Amino acid sequence: MLRNIPANMQGYKLMVTEPPQPKMRENDNGMQEIATDRNGVQQFVVSLFAKRKAQPGEFAGKGEEIRVTLTADPGEGFEEGAYVHLIDATVSHWENNGRSGLSFKANGLTPAGADLSAAA
């Protein structure tokens, strides 16, 4: 199975739709608990709307909401509507109980700055 493939998201505008929060998972008892990696480090999750950056004369097309697992707390300042860049983004394919999809992961977020805020 392909895992942790580097993902170049430079051709996309990424806007926060749900601010970063601790990632939760259901334990064996059906209770929600904070998700950690294999080393016990707390994980976070952020929802982003990803839309391709259109070149002059091109149609950008539709975007899509993605959920990205963050390997560390990104800190403050990533509220709904903020444009961001992912740090060291990767994508992995998953399959479970007849379902499959892609999961995104990154080491963190940085503000995209005025370059995207004005263009939105």
From TrEMBL:
Domain of life from the UniProt record: Bacteria
Name of the molecule in the record: Uncharacterized protein
